[in-house]
Amino acid sequence: MGDLSKNFSRYEFACQGKNCCRHSAPVHPDLIIALQQLCDKLGRSLKINSGFRCNKHNLEEGGEPGSYHTLAMAADVACPKGLSIQDFLAAAESIPLFRQGGIGVYPNRLHLDVRKKGPQRWRKNE
What's this model's pTM, rounded to 2 decimal places? Predict the structure, then answer.
Protein backbone atom coordinates (compact mmCIF):
# COMPACT_ATOMS: atom_id res chain seq x y z
CA MET A 1 0.00 0.00 0.00
CA GLY A 2 1.31 3.40 -0.92
CA ASP A 3 0.86 6.85 0.52
CA LEU A 4 0.35 8.47 -2.92
CA SER A 5 -1.94 5.83 -4.43
CA LYS A 6 -2.77 2.16 -4.03
CA ASN A 7 0.60 1.13 -5.51
CA PHE A 8 2.92 4.12 -5.08
CA SER A 9 4.73 5.77 -2.18
CA ARG A 10 6.64 9.03 -2.06
CA TYR A 11 9.96 7.31 -1.25
CA GLU A 12 9.91 5.59 -4.69
CA PHE A 13 10.18 9.00 -6.34
CA ALA A 14 13.01 10.46 -4.18
CA CYS A 15 16.20 11.57 -5.90
CA GLN A 16 18.57 8.62 -6.11
CA GLY A 17 21.81 10.18 -7.30
CA LYS A 18 25.07 9.03 -5.71
CA ASN A 19 26.16 11.40 -2.94
CA CYS A 20 23.03 13.34 -3.70
CA CYS A 21 20.29 15.07 -1.80
CA ARG A 22 17.78 12.15 -1.50
CA HIS A 23 15.09 14.81 -1.58
CA SER A 24 11.80 14.60 -3.30
CA ALA A 25 9.45 17.15 -4.71
CA PRO A 26 5.71 16.89 -4.51
CA VAL A 27 5.02 14.38 -7.26
CA HIS A 28 2.66 15.79 -9.87
CA PRO A 29 -0.80 14.30 -9.25
CA ASP A 30 -1.29 13.51 -12.95
CA LEU A 31 1.83 11.33 -12.91
CA ILE A 32 0.50 9.30 -9.98
CA ILE A 33 -2.94 8.99 -11.60
CA ALA A 34 -1.46 7.78 -14.89
CA LEU A 35 0.99 5.36 -13.26
CA GLN A 36 -1.80 3.89 -11.13
CA GLN A 37 -3.97 3.48 -14.23
CA LEU A 38 -1.07 1.64 -15.90
CA CYS A 39 -0.69 -0.66 -12.87
CA ASP A 40 -4.41 -1.37 -12.88
CA LYS A 41 -4.40 -2.07 -16.63
CA LEU A 42 -1.47 -4.47 -16.35
CA GLY A 43 -2.75 -6.05 -13.13
CA ARG A 44 0.66 -5.76 -11.50
CA SER A 45 2.84 -3.33 -9.62
CA LEU A 46 5.59 -1.36 -11.35
CA LYS A 47 9.16 -0.55 -10.31
CA ILE A 48 10.18 3.09 -10.51
CA ASN A 49 13.85 3.27 -11.53
CA SER A 50 14.01 7.06 -11.37
CA GLY A 51 11.41 9.61 -10.34
CA PHE A 52 12.31 13.09 -9.12
CA ARG A 53 15.87 14.20 -9.87
CA CYS A 54 17.58 17.23 -8.41
CA ASN A 55 19.48 19.31 -10.96
CA LYS A 56 22.82 17.75 -9.95
CA HIS A 57 21.57 14.19 -10.40
CA ASN A 58 19.80 15.09 -13.63
CA LEU A 59 23.08 16.39 -15.10
CA GLU A 60 24.90 13.22 -13.97
CA GLU A 61 22.27 11.15 -15.82
CA GLY A 62 22.72 13.23 -18.96
CA GLY A 63 19.23 14.68 -18.59
CA GLU A 64 18.19 17.82 -20.37
CA PRO A 65 18.06 21.07 -18.35
CA GLY A 66 14.46 21.51 -17.23
CA SER A 67 13.83 17.77 -17.57
CA TYR A 68 10.39 16.63 -16.49
CA HIS A 69 12.19 14.56 -13.83
CA THR A 70 13.31 17.82 -12.17
CA LEU A 71 9.68 18.94 -12.14
CA ALA A 72 8.46 15.65 -10.58
CA MET A 73 6.37 15.03 -13.70
CA ALA A 74 8.30 12.00 -15.02
CA ALA A 75 9.37 8.51 -14.06
CA ASP A 76 11.56 5.86 -15.63
CA VAL A 77 9.71 2.58 -15.13
CA ALA A 78 11.22 -0.90 -15.46
CA CYS A 79 9.56 -3.21 -17.96
CA PRO A 80 7.75 -5.85 -15.88
CA LYS A 81 9.08 -9.40 -16.10
CA GLY A 82 7.26 -11.52 -18.61
CA LEU A 83 6.18 -8.49 -20.67
CA SER A 84 7.90 -7.33 -23.84
CA ILE A 85 8.90 -3.69 -24.10
CA GLN A 86 6.48 -3.39 -27.05
CA ASP A 87 3.56 -4.69 -24.96
CA PHE A 88 4.57 -2.38 -22.12
CA LEU A 89 4.68 0.54 -24.57
CA ALA A 90 1.24 -0.34 -25.95
CA ALA A 91 -0.21 -0.40 -22.43
CA ALA A 92 1.38 2.99 -21.62
CA GLU A 93 0.06 4.47 -24.88
CA SER A 94 -3.45 3.44 -23.85
CA ILE A 95 -3.30 5.73 -20.78
CA PRO A 96 -4.59 9.18 -21.86
CA LEU A 97 -2.16 11.24 -19.75
CA PHE A 98 0.81 9.33 -21.19
CA ARG A 99 -0.59 9.35 -24.72
CA GLN A 100 -0.75 13.17 -24.43
CA GLY A 101 2.65 13.35 -22.69
CA GLY A 102 6.12 12.00 -23.27
CA ILE A 103 7.17 8.39 -23.76
CA GLY A 104 10.76 7.34 -24.26
CA VAL A 105 11.47 3.72 -25.13
CA TYR A 106 14.67 2.08 -23.84
CA PRO A 107 15.64 -1.60 -24.00
CA ASN A 108 14.33 -2.47 -20.53
CA ARG A 109 12.33 0.56 -19.40
CA LEU A 110 10.04 3.38 -20.41
CA HIS A 111 10.38 7.06 -19.59
CA LEU A 112 6.83 8.26 -18.90
CA ASP A 113 5.88 11.88 -18.32
CA VAL A 114 2.79 14.03 -18.12
CA ARG A 115 4.03 17.10 -20.01
CA LYS A 116 1.40 19.57 -21.15
CA LYS A 117 3.11 20.69 -24.39
CA GLY A 118 1.77 17.83 -26.48
CA PRO A 119 2.97 14.32 -27.22
CA GLN A 120 6.67 13.58 -27.57
CA ARG A 121 8.19 10.19 -28.47
CA TRP A 122 11.74 8.88 -28.71
CA ARG A 123 13.63 5.61 -28.71
CA LYS A 124 17.17 4.98 -27.42
CA ASN A 125 19.17 1.79 -27.58
CA GLU A 126 21.52 2.69 -24.69
Answer: 0.92
